[in-house]
Amino acid sequence: MYIPKMVIAGFIACVLLVFGWAVAVANDRNPLPFPDRNYQVFTASSTGGLRAMEELMREHGIRPRFRADSDQVDRTIFSDGTIINSVHPELLEKLGNPAGAIGLVVDDPVTAAAAAAALLRSRGFDAEVIEDAEPGLPIAFVTTDALSGAVLVFRRHQLRMGSRPARWTERS
């Protein structure tokens, strides 16, 4: 039976690509934007605290992947989806000084935040939707007394967030 060399070469290339992707995933370096899971966010006490947490996480095998800094937030996104922020005081105050957040990936952040706030209110909790905390980003927050010291964050899938965040680099 004759098998063309191009078929064999194509098969070998596919096997190598799948193997390379599997190695990347096993080493927390998935090059694809899938899956984009829900995530957790923690607030560092300062920029120095953020740097210390970056170092601590690296020492325990959780690598920083991206820096998604904005005017209001210095943000490090780690390989396991954890996000640690150093938030400027004005934004912290606007959100009620949360120590952390539960992040949820949704199609429409404002609609999802409004629905979450309505559900929380129907259960007897206070809930407020904040849309403009970080202008220019497609995210919405819900502050609620159902969580102690935390908020809910609703954002679009990372493919619909705009440009890819910058690769992580050491903070000076």
Which features would summarize this protein structure in a list?
172 residues, single chain, alpha+beta
In short:
The protein is built from four helices and nine strands; from the N terminus they run H-E-H-E-E-E-H-E-H-E-E-E-E. It is α+β, with helices and mostly antiparallel strands.
List the helices and strands and how they pair.
Elements: H1 5-26, E1 39-43, H2 47-59, E2 64-67, E3 73-78, E4 83-87, H3 89-94, E5 100-105, H4 109-122, E6 127-130, E7 139-144, E8 150-155, E9 166-167
Parallel strand pairs: 1-4, 5-8
Antiparallel strand pairs: 1-5, 2-3, 2-9, 3-4, 6-7, 7-8
Give the overall pLDDT as a whole number: 86
Distance between the termini: 63 Å
Overall outline = globular
Largest sheet strand order: 6-7-8-5-1-4-3-2-9
What's the count of strands?
9
What's the helical proportion of residues?
A: 25-40%
Specify the structural class: alpha+beta
Query: Radius of gyration in whole Å, from Cα?
Result: 20 Å
Could you describe the largest sheet, including whether it forms a barrel? 9 strands, mixed
Can you put this structure into words, describing what you see?
- The model has no long low-confidence stretch (mean pLDDT 86).
- A hairpin with a 4-residue loop joins strand 3 and strand 4.
- Strands 6-7-8-5-1-4-3-2-9 form a 9-stranded mixed sheet.
- It starts with a helix and ends in a 5-residue tail after the last strand.
- By secondary structure, it is an alpha+beta fold.
- It is built from 4 helices and 9 strands, in the order αβαβββαβαββββ.
